[in-house]
Amino acid sequence: MATSTSGARKPAAKRTTRRTTTGTATRSTRSTAGTRRTTSRTSASTRRTSARATSTQPKTRAAQAQVLAERAVLVPVGAGLLAGEDLVTTVKGLAGKYRTRPALERELKRYERRGATARNRFERQVRRARTRFERELRQRRSLVERTMRQNQRRLNRELSSVRRDFEKQSGAMSARVERLVANAQGLIGS
Questions:
Q1: Sign of torsion over alpha carbons 122, 124, 127, 133
Q2: Can you tell me the distance from the alpha carbon of 80 to that of 78, in angstroms, rounded to the nearest whole number?
Q3: Helix (H, G, I), strand (E, B), or coil: what is residue 98?
Q4: How far apart are CA 93 and CA 109, in angstroms?
Q5: Can you tell me the mean pLDDT for 38-61?
Q6: At what angle do helices 2-22 and 24-53 cross, to 10 degrees?
Q7: DSSP-based three-state secondary structure for 55
Q8: Whole-angstrom distance, CA of residue 48 vs CA of residue 55
């Protein structure tokens, strides 16, 4: 117990030091923290009470049906009124904007600049796409041509190799046939 008392005294000593240096700031911090706790308790109890007192859900099925029917009527009416107000505001804004000839010309020039900007942007995109397509096409064409040249070289090498092998084999075969013919003539002649 003596340890906890001495532990409690140390923070108190620190608070005293703070009080002497910052005085009112420490007091206002303490009162704010106390106010926060009181406010949160009060608002929680107020929420519970108001939730019980003002329930928007009707108790009976007939009352629920009545609320749904009212909604079904009021929503389109409200939407129509808002649309009408928006239309009136838009018409008034357009009438104010285009009331004089200089204002109308200014707006037309603005629209023209906007259109020209959009057209230029579109043309740039088309040119970029075309350039990209042509570049890819050239790359693919050169790749195909390179592959074809490599394949043709390989085929020519293979053909010349087969031709050489065939010539060697035919030479060896003709020499063998000549030997056989000579042997056969020698056997026939003897």
A1: negative
A2: 5
A3: coil
A4: 18
A5: 63
A6: 100
A7: coil
A8: 11
> At a CB cut-off of 8 Å and minimum separation 6, what does 58 contact?
64, 66, 67
Tokens of 84: 């009408």
Residue type, 150: Q
Tokens of 88: 């009136």
For 144-178, what is each residue's pLDDT tens digit? 999 999 999 999 999 999 999 998 888 888 888 88
CA atoms within 13 A on the CB side of 189: 6
Contact between 103 and 97 under an 8 Å Cβ cutoff? The reply is yes
Q: d(Cα 31, Cα 11) in Å, to the nearest integer?
A: 18
d(CA 162, CA 156): 10
Q: How far is CA 80 from CA 5, 13, 67, in A?
A: 73, 70, 20
